[in-house]
Design goal:
This protein is of the alpha+beta class and 497 residues long. It has eleven helices and 30 strands.
Length: 497
């Protein structure tokens, strides 16, 4: 059985795409009749939807331009192409005697839409990525060269500009926050390079996180979205753009009724910045965050589990002078509730650089409000996460055991063995019981326990005393602040039972 995959819906020319398209079209389920206003909306906005055509020069690899197309399993063409390509010899052939061949041009098609009659177009970044040439094709077939204004890889959006040959029709953004589950939506794009196509469906879900990027908050729809629909608009019944069609989940590459669109609230903000600066200027809080698990929530006296746990604070970031500390749990930012780390990442990124905001944190069971003036995120591609490395088991020094851990006081030799910076203080882990809760939570030799239950520790005795006290207090788990050798912190909750 073919596994379902997430597919960016840009179309690359080739027979394989046409075969998939034919299969998808034949196998598509019939949708229930929608509202009568769909035709009126389509007629009003169709001229604002454009095709995006790109060309790119690529190096041919082992078979040149005559590589075997990817066909659906069981396709009647599979045997034919297997014989035709795999048995060819010589330059450009797919057999063992084939050469790489010269560089060749590839073409792709996607979709976009005009938001300003001066010739401003919105599409997906993956539609125009690495393109040597970009052209906008209007609904009547007019083809115009376009220039790139800017891209944002994190939200997969791009803005283009072209010189209008005549007056244009533009569309405006609607409010995606007002969408309700079951609302009717209309997708217009260029699937399979067949020209402008209109499909309709409903909003299946909101705020979908499919782990494709740090700011995922997709609208899910069952409106048919296929290859070539990437960058096309998703309209409400008022003819306003409430999303940009970006991804589908499909085993074949064709629509099975699971499509995703970037909500207009996100798109509008990104587009404004790209038009103004040519780049994104996102807010920066200067903290590393992690999920508040049920165990961590119990250790911190937070009910129910919610918010984003601050695992580390950048010494040069805006959170430091505001008084935010590791162990704080952010539950509200600039008046918006924070349910999990993704919520905080999104709202911080969407907040203007230099704005002073109220950040509500829970510290030792009590809420506190901190005023923070946001900085600018300079390197959004840097993943701020604790990086673990597998170290060979060291020779065991004289240690003390607790929580399935062998613990030792940090000294010069242990710092050198585990490459621990001088700035890191605490008790070093020298071994982990493979059957312990600590092993399941991925603690390993070389980790340094900095705090236990939010109190600093410097020896195994300190740790054992804190554990004994927590047991007397009836606690089921203990919260550890753990550092790696570079000083990157994270919180780990371990069972004390």
């Amino acid at each position: 059985m073919t596994a379902a995959t997430i597919v960016p819906t840009r179309l690359r020319f080739g027979l394989a795409a046409l075969v998939i398209g034919a299969v998808s079209a034949l196998g598509s389920p019939a949708y229930a009749r929608g509202p009568e206003g769909i035709a009126d909306v389509a007629e009003k906005v169709i001229d604002a939807v454009v095709n995006i055509s790109t060309s790119q020069t690529v190096e041919a690899k082992g078979g040149g331009s005559n590589t075997m197309p990817q066909l659906p399993p069981g396709s009647p063409f599979e045997e034919f192409f297997d014989d035709f390509f795999k048995n060819r010899k010589g330059p450009g052939g797919g057999g063992k005697g084939g050469d790489s061949g010269p560089p060749r041009k590839t073409n792709s098609l996607g979709s976009g839409f005009i938001i300003d009659t001066s010739g401003i177009v919105v599409t997906n970044n993956h539609v125009i990525a690495d393109a040597d040439e970009i052209n906008v094709i209007l609904n009547d077939g007019t083809k115009i060269k376009a220039d790139l204004v800017g891209v944002d890889k994190k939200t997969d959006l791009a803005v283009l500009k072209f010189k209008p040959p005549r007056p244009l029709i533009a569309v405006k953004f609607g409010d995606s926050d007002k969408l309700r589950l079951g609302d009717w939506v209309i997708a217009i794009g260029n699937p399979f390079s067949l020209g402008g196509t209109v499909t309709a469906g409903i909003v299946s879900a909101k705020n979908r996180d499919i782990s494709s990027g740090p700011y995922d908050s997709y609208i899910q729809t069952d409106a048919a979205i296929n290859r070539g629909n990437s960058g096309g608009p998703l309209f409400n019944l008022e003819g306003d753009v409430i999303g940009v069609n970006t991804l589908i989940i499909s085993p074949s590459g064709g629509s099975i009724g699971i499509g995703f669109a970037v909500p207009s609230k996100t798109v509008a903000g990104v587009v404004d910045q790209l038009r103004q600066f040519g780049e994104l200027r996102r807010g920066w809080l200067g903290v590393r965050i992690q999920t508040v698990t049920d165990e961590i929530a119990e250790s911190l006296n937070i009910k129910p589990a919610r918010g984003a746990l601050v695992a580390g604070v950048d010494d040069k970031g805006p959170a430091k002078p505001a008084g935010i500390e590791p162990g704080d749990v952010v539950v509200k930012f600039d008046g918006k509730d924070v349910k999990d780390p993704k919520d905080l990442s999104r709202v911080v990124a969407d907040t203007a650089v230099g704005k002073e905001v109220d950040v509500v944190v829970i510290r030792k069971g009590e809420e506190q409000t901190k005023k923070v003036t946001l900085g600018r995120l300079q390197d959004p591609d840097k993943v701020q996460a604790a990086v673990k490395t597998d170290e060979p088991p060291p020779e065991k020094p004289v240690t003390q055991k607790a929580l399935g851990l062998d613990l030792a006081v940090l000294n010069k030799d242990l710092r050198a063995r585990y490459k621990i910076k001088d700035s890191v203080k605490g008790v070093v882990v020298t071994n982990v019981d493979a059957n312990s809760d600590a092993a399941e939570k991925r603690l390993s030799a070389g980790d340094v326990i900095v705090e236990v239950a939010q109190e600093a520790v410097s020896s195994g005795d300190d740790i054992q005393k804190r554990i004994d006290q927590l047991k007397k207090d009836g606690k089921k788990s203990v919260l550890l602040l753990v550092s790696n050798g570079d000083g990157e912190l994270r919180f780990v909750a371990l069972s004390v039972q």
